[in-house]
Specification:
Blueprint (H helix, E strand, L loop, with lengths): L1 H11 L11 H27 L4 H7 L4 H25 L21 H5 L26
Helix pairs in contact: 2-4
């Protein structure tokens, strides 16, 4: 198929531009992977800016500050990218069509936005219960 696109672009005089992968699953992973890297770099910047646990002071005081910075960034990138990509994969089964009333067919998966925004708990209402006369027989062993 790429040969067909290449031939068509040559005929029309247009050059092929690199773009996102054609496979939607690869595109999903690429977009979420980039989001994970961005989140991890923001997290690293926040950790260094806040000097949590005197981390920035330790890195600056090191003989070669690049090594701890690269190790910290690498760990954060691997962790956050895995979390974001894993969340995207786990949410593949949910769709907008499933958001309707399912009448006991299981609980609908929450979207990422719904999990981040706190929601109100339903008002608890007491349920009347009938009590029958008599005691329950229990097995009493002496």
């Amino acid at each position: 198929m790429s040969a067909f696109l290449h031939d068509e672009s040559r005929k029309s005089g247009q050059s092929l531009k690199p773009s996102a992968p054609a496979n939607p699953l690869l595109r999903l992973l690429a977009v979420n992977g980039a989001a994970g890297v961005a989140i991890s770099l923001l997290m690293l910047a926040g950790l260094l800016a806040a000097d949590v646990g005197h981390l920035r002071s330790l890195i600056v005081a090191a003989q070669d500050p690049v090594v701890p910075l690269v190790l910290l960034a690498g760990g954060l990138i691997v962790t956050m990218t895995s979390v974001v990509m894993g969340t995207a994969i786990m949410m593949l089964g949910s769709s907008d069509e499933d958001s309707g009333d399912r009448k006991g067919r299981g609980r609908r998966s929450m979207t990422l936005l719904e999990t981040l925004i706190p929601h109100r708990q339903p008002k608890l209402v007491p349920v009347p219960v009938r009590v029958t006369a008599g005691r329950r027989q229990t097995d009493r062993r002496a």
